Amino acid sequence: MNILLTGASGFIAQSLIPRLLSQGHQLFALTQSKDACARLYGKQVECFTSLDDYWQLANRPNIDALINLAGAGIADQRWSESRKAELLNSRISTTKNLLEFIAALDCKPEVLLSASAIGFYGSHFEDEPLDENANPQQGFTHDLCNSWETEALKAEEHGTRVCLLRTGIVLGKGGALAKMRLPFSLGLGGRVGSGKQWMSWIHIEDEVRAIEFLLENKNAKGAFNLTAPNAVQNIEFTRLYAKSLGRPAIFPLPEIIPKLMLGEGAELLLEGQRVYPRKLLEIGFQFQHGELEEAFAAL
Asked: Could you say which of 45, 133, 246, 284 is the most buried, measured as most Cβ atoms within 10 Å of its Cβ?
């Protein structure tokens, strides 16, 4: 396949792109920095800073698939009103550009895989697992994901199959664990707030395998929860992470700390949702890392 991918320098893409290249796919990356893209992938990936670059190619290949992973980091800084606008615009503007690109193509892509997040469901404090048909709770994360997904689904008007990737906390050598590693390695980690909030996670290998699975499965469409089947509460997540590093988890983080640091964005640490990947399992995907303790050990 000829695949155009956004967010090429991101955490997930850095594992996804080598896998797609190993499967013989030809990749084109829309990126903010050609130099960064070249450092990561060399000449194996043709990097664009604008979709206009594609139209300048002398021998333009047909694009068979689009994978949209672009978006500003949601937990990187305090959620001011300007930051929330940036989080929304970084996702919506890129997706709109891709829709305009699809409309201009004579040969439409077969599929668009577009990132989303389990934040679509909002904060849930109940223990009931949430599948793709669960009712969301209103709030900023739902509004953000819903607007993002609504824009991506417009690709169906061009006959392009759309899969929405509602991803949970991705475990790998980077991402959320990179921020946790130092205090936990020093034995200073512990539950966050009450520790009762659910954490829906997925190992980076399963994240990449699930994206590839949806890319190749012509019957897959709509929203998919990309989370392991066994979500855990924060107190168990932090205990098992500390255990994997040979450390205790005895220093809880009071609620006031993330609230001071992230403001409204503290909900990402203090609230959660117990998400279940029903649709992914129903179409035959098999997780390699379904249990959290084993997933940490594999890292």
From this structure: 45
Residue 272, SS3? Answer: coil
* Tens-place pLDDT, residues 120-141: 999 998 899 999 999 999 999 9
Q: Which residues pair with 91 in a beta bridge?
A: none
Which residues in 56-160 belong to E strands, given as ranges?
Answer: 65-68, 111-117
Q: Specify whether the CB–CB gap between 162 and 112 falls below 8 A.
A: yes
* Mean pLDDT of the 210-224 span: 97
CA distance 291 to 82: 38
Q: Is 100 helix (H, G, I), strand (E, B) or coil?
A: helix
Distance from C-alpha of 48 to C-alpha of 31, rounded to nearest angstrom: 6
Cβ atoms of residues 225 and 282 within 8 Å: no
Strand pairing class (232-233; 198-199): antiparallel
Cβ atoms of 41 and 34 closer than 8 Å: no
Place of tokens 């021998």: 59
Residue 179 neighbours by CB distance under 10 Å? 11
CA–CA distance, 216 with 247 (Å, rounded to integer): 41
- Beta-bridge partner residues of 172: 174
Are residues 133 and 124 in contact, defined by beta-carbon separation less than 8 angstroms?
no
Pair of tokens at residue 182: 């130092």
The CATH homologous superfamily for domain 2-298 is NAD(P)-binding Rossmann-like Domain (3.40.50.720)
